[in-house]
Write a structure and sequence with these properties.
Blueprint: H1 27-76, E1 82-83, E2 86-87, E3 98-103, E4 112-117, H2 121-126, E5 129-130, E6 145-146
Parallel strand pairs: 4-5
Antiparallel strand pairs: 1-2, 3-4, 5-6
Length: 149
């Protein structure tokens, strides 16, 4: 049966030749549709950026803050620095190095940060910074720091 003589649609692939071609979509409708898709895509990109800024950067800074706190704890527990509970060495405040702990009990019992010397972007990525040239942290002096938020 190589012949299609009995088939009334033989030789046609897509319908009647007398069918009109499909009309072009309305130009305004196409513009609105494409603009809507573009705005939805842009909104999703902005949403992903907000999630990155709020959550991911906090996770990264928390890890760096833990490292700074561990380095300060190691320095404080060094036998050359502590003698009977009193410090025998004075610390030179080096840029980016921790020298104090800041406890914030109003934010929660476990909220604390290691205060670092300097206010450069690199230092503030690690935690709150202390302005160079201002009073050191003591019980009687004013203490100036730069928050990382």
């Amino acid at each position: 049966m190589g012949s299609h003589e009995g088939d009334h649609n033989s030789g046609r692939m897509y319908g009647d030749l007398s069918d009109r071609p499909p009309e072009r979509p309305d130009r305004a409708r196409t513009i609105v549709k494409n603009l809507g898709e573009l705005l939805i895509t842009a909104g999703l990109v902005v949403l992903l950026f907000v999630v990155y800024e709020v959550y991911i950067t906090d996770l990264l800074s928390d890890g760096k803050q833990r490292e700074a706190t561990a380095a300060l704890d190691d320095q404080w527990h060094n036998k050359d620095t502590v003698d009977g509970g009193e410090r025998t060495n004075k610390y030179d405040l080096a840029d980016g190095k921790g020298f104090a702990k800041l406890y914030l009990p109003s934010l929660g019992p476990d909220v604390h940060f290691t205060v670092l010397e300097g206010t450069s972007d690199k230092t503030l990525e690690l935690g709150p910074g202390h302005y160079k040239g201002t009073a050191p942290l003591t019980r009687s002096a004013h203490f100036f720091q730069c928050p990382r938020w």
